[in-house]
Amino acid sequence: MIYLDHNATTPLDRRVLETMLPYLENEWGNPSSPYRFASRAKIAIEKARNQIAECAGCGPGEIIFTSSGTESDNLAVRGTAHALRSRGNHIVTTAIEHHAVLNTCKALETEGFRVTYLPVNSSGVVSIKELENRLAPETILVTVMHANNETGVLQPVKEIADLTKKRGIPFHTDAVQTAGKIPYPLCELGADLISFSGHKLYGPKGTAALYIHEKTPLSPILTGGLQENGLRAGTENVAGIMGLAHAFSLSAESAEREYKRLEELRDRFEERICTLIPGTKINGTGAPRIPNTTNISFDSVDGESIVLGLDLHGICVSTGSACSTGEPEPSHVLVAMGLSPKEAQGSIRISLGRDTGEAEMDTALEALSDTIKRLRSISSV
Amino acid sequence: MGSPSSKEKTDQPEYSGPILYYNDTVLDHFTNPRNVGELAENETDGYGLVGDPMCGDQMKLWISIRSERIDRIAFKSYGCPGAIATSSMLTDLAKGRTVEEAKRITDDDVVEALGGIPERKKHCSLLGVLALQAAIKDWETKCSLKKESEP
Question: Do A381 and B120 touch (CB under 8 A)?
Answer without folding.
Answer: no
